[in-house]
Amino acid sequence: MKAYDQLIFELSTPNRVGYSLPKNDLPYDIQKDIPNNLKRTQETLLPSVAELDLVRHYSNVSRKNFGIETGFYPLGSCTMKYNPKINEEIAALPGLRNIHPLQPIETAQGSLEIYYDTSRMLSELSGMAAFSLNPFAGAQGELAGLMIMKAYHHLKGNTHKTKVIVPDSAHGTNPASATVAGFEIIEVKSNKDGTVNIKALKEAINDEVAGIMLTNPNTLGIFEKDILKISKLVHSVDGLLYYDGANLNALLGRARPGDMGFDIIHINLHKTFSTPHGGGGPGSGPVGVCKKLVEFLPAPQVYKRRNRFILDRPIHTIGHVSGFLGNFSVIIKAYSFMLTLGKENLSKVGELSVLNANYLKASLKDDFYLPIQGLCKHEVVFDGLVDKSTGVTTLDVAKRLLDFGIHPPTIYFPLVFHQSLMIEPVENESKETLDHFVGIMKQISNEAKTDPEMVKHAPYTTVVRRLDEVSAARNPRVKYRDLLK
Predict the structure, then answer these.
(1) DSSP three-state, residue 339
(2) What's the rounded Cα separation, in Å, for the pair 288 and 294?
(3) DSSP symbols for 25-42
(4) Which one, of 172, 407, 401, lies nearest residue 279 by Cα?
(5) How far apart (Å, rounded) are the C-alpha atoms in residues 253 and 349?
(6) Are 178 and 146 in contact (CB under 8 A)?
(7) Which residues carry this modification: N6-(pyridoxal phosphate)lysine (predicted)?
(8) Are 208 and 182 within 8 A, CB to CB?
(9) What is the set of domains in the chain, with CATH numbers?
(10) At what angle do helices 431-450 and 394-402 cross, to 10 degrees?
(11) Do 82 and 94 contact (CB within 8 A), yes or no?
(12) Is 59 exposed, middle or buried (0-12, 13-18, 19+ CB in 10 A)?
């Protein structure tokens, strides 16, 4: 085994040291202040390596990671978008990086202005009246939106409104968030293209319906052309429309959910507005509302009073959903992203996202089965290869892509197709990159016909091959001690 394929513990040699620490200059023994029940009973298992070995180890590990700066990352529905370096530089400015949430508000006016201006820009882009940037992630933004929905109905005395309509093609977090918020789920079957079946929706509408959760375009990348009918139906029973902002990339600068009749929206700043996304963070899921719901937003909220920014609680607030004012570094990056593009260029995000997705759709439809004809929006969903006789599955295609340095698209979602392959190219990928991807996909399609077994056993160039993912999920071995058992 090569040294760069070994674990840091396997490189360890007893008594080898690769660091030096300053002498303890505390005037007392800090060990005396630590309760005995918090002290270790045995020495920590740490590797013993020289500094050069340590540097090489982490440098090699970094090369094994895949990221948007490493290669094409067309993960459908998740918008794996490049984050311009200027955003990182601005977020790292000392005056922003070193701010403390408990310092006097008079000394944080600049940061509060960024928060306030970001919320106003998001309101303008989405057609909402106001935003709270406090939720830490999209799922938390969903939950906050549903808590607002419940608070609105309860204030009106409509405690019988206990049901939320969720189409069968919805994102998986939608029914989960509604359940956590205490709602009962009514699933509505979709049309073949994933759009809401109006007939089924009419049958589900009654006075117990608190609202509906949608994304537009839907999970298949198809625009809900009947959105105004849907809005009218739900509002006829005083229900609220909730917009899942995961697919906002398709509409940015060209259409606004608020103008379609949506009352509540969450936006993934770490998707649409460029902050790096994945690996558990960082995230931010601002929740926006229409005028009649403004006083239900989470606390605290930033207000501008006489050219001064203050913190206060909306009258009917759902309360705190996060510590202080959310993930401020992500907010700064989104703020920088919007100012860098400017109002005149933000409209190109939606245009180019849609153009790129349709280019891939047209380029690959002869090799990969396209179950829905016509224009898509920001993402396209194929149902495996056109030629099913080879036995090559969507999983096989995804594994083979790894050999070419391309991250696979989302696979087996949405669930409406058996071999879903969901591709989102985002707006900042060049035609050359897309053509390279198309060439590789066509090569894999040809390999499936001429040498299917080769595709079925891919990948060949990665550090590890195919894993037992079920066992890895149920019995993870994440510590070196576990490997010794």
Answers:
(1) helix
(2) 8
(3) --SS-GGGGS-GGGS-SS
(4) 407
(5) 7
(6) yes
(7) 271
(8) no
(9) 3-64 (no CATH), 99-341 (3.40.640.10), 348-471 (3.90.1150.10)
(10) 120
(11) no
(12) exposed
Helix (H) or strand (E) holding 338: helix 328-341
Rounded to an integer, what distance in angstroms lies between the CA atom of residue 167 and that of residue 189?
6
CB within 8 Å of 251: residues ≥ 6 apart: 216, 217, 257, 350, 377
Q: What pLDDT, in 10s, does the model give residues 282-317? A: 789 999 999 999 999 999 999 999 999 999 999 999
Tokens encoding 446: 């040809």
Sign of CA dihedral 47, 53, 58, 62: negative
Q: Phi/psi of residue 185, each to 5°?
A: -90, 130
According to DSSP, the β-strands at 287-289 and 301-305 are unpaired
Two structure tokens written together for 267: 């936006």
The two tokens of residue 89 are 């530089």
Q: What is d(CA 283, CA 139) in angstroms, rounded to the nearest whole number?
A: 10
How remote is the C-alpha of 352 from its chain's centroid? 20
DSSP string, 75-130: BTTT------HHHHHHHT-HHHHT--TTS-GGGGHHHHHHHHHHHHHHHHHHT-SE
Each residue's pLDDT, cut to its tens digit, for the chain (485 residues) gives 565 678 889 899 998 988 888 887 877 777 778 888 988 888 888 899 999 999 999 898 888 888 888 899 999 988 888 889 999 999 999 999 999 989 999 999 999 999 999 999 999 999 999 999 999 999 999 999 999 999 999 999 999 999 999 998 888 889 999 999 999 999 999 898 889 999 999 999 999 999 999 999 998 999 999 999 999 999 999 999 999 999 999 999 899 999 999 999 999 998 899 887 766 567 899 999 999 999 999 999 999 999 999 999 999 999 999 989 999 999 999 999 999 999 889 989 999 999 999 999 999 999 999 999 999 999 999 999 999 999 999 999 999 999 999 999 999 998 889 999 999 999 999 999 999 999 999 999 999 999 999 999 999 999 889 988 899 889 888 877 777 66
Question: Do 382 and 449 contact (CB within 8 A), yes or no?
Answer: no
Cα 385 from Cα 387, distance rounded (Å): 5
Structure tokens of 38?
Answer: 């918090």
In whole angstroms, give the CA distance from residue 180 to residue 186: 15
Other CB atoms within 10 Å distance of the CB of residue 362? 12
Number of Cβ within a 10 Å radius of residue 280: 6
Buried b (16+ CB within 10 A) or exposed e, 313-334: ebeebbeebbeebbbbbbbbbb
